[in-house]
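Prompt: Have a read of the protein record below and flag anything odd:
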Amino acid sequence: MDAFKEEEEEDTGTPGWMATFADLMSLLMCFFVLLLSFSQIDLLKYKVVAGSMRDAFGVQNRIKVMDTPKGTSITTTEFSPGKPVPTVVETVNQVTVEPTQASLSVGNPDSAKQTLRYDRDASKQTDAEKTLEKKVKSLLMETERNADQLAKVLEKEIKDGKIEIQVRGRTITIRIREAGSFTSGSAVLNANFLPIMTKLRTALRSILGSIGVEGHTDDVPISFGEFRSNWDLSAARALSVAHELIKTNELDNSRFMVVGHAETKPHKPNLDDESRALNRRVEIIIRQGLDMQTEEEIRKIQSMNPEVMEIIQQLSNDI
């Protein structure tokens, strides 16, 4: 019995290995404390880790009293809101954006732009405008064809830079450079330029319209010779070209008008010798305009709709 009691007393004590384990844990704790004391904490990484831990463990953010509480609305999740569409109210008002305008337009400023019409039959009025628009476009295409015809006749001279052809609306401008056509300070056409005038005269027979011959000079004043000023020189050169065109009576004299502009209408700014050479020119301007029937149609439509001229202006800048 005594031996059995002694064994029970020995088993009730702490095992021997616990002392070794406790020493090991203490050493490890000291080791990590030393590592932590020698280390430097990266604040940015710490915030990232702390944020991840907060999200992982469900830490909620405190909302300030001044912030509006946010939540999910069952209305927005279950129903789609419609886009509001304004309803146009057809009211008749007098509208203007120009204080100096002679008359006011009648219509609704909130609705689409409308055209003032006096004709009771709006469909006929629209058809008339469409017909007029087609006719004006046809006339503009005719002017383009006439310009192409002149360009073919004067193809060599255009390539050589002696002549330039420009189209603007129902107006064709044939620009004759001084180089090759006139000697500096002279109003007499060079002999080698006369065949070009012959070709031009022949081409103008089949092209309708009034013909204006306009002379231009640069801004350098004339101080010698037979001409008193650039006015005399520009007018004399225009007159020489006009005489050459009408000398065979192939072209009606009543179609012509001769003008001298001197340096008042430069083609390019007079900055250097090159630009001044471009300004010394004679322009043959063919103004075809509109035929009498088209002008009469415009007057009729304009009496019923004063804004019809906007259509004409959009199609041509020079009718």
In short: The radius of gyration is 47 Å. The first strand starts at residue 93 and ends at 95. Residues 179 and 242 are 18 Å apart (CA to CA). DSSP finds eleven helices and seven strands in the chain.
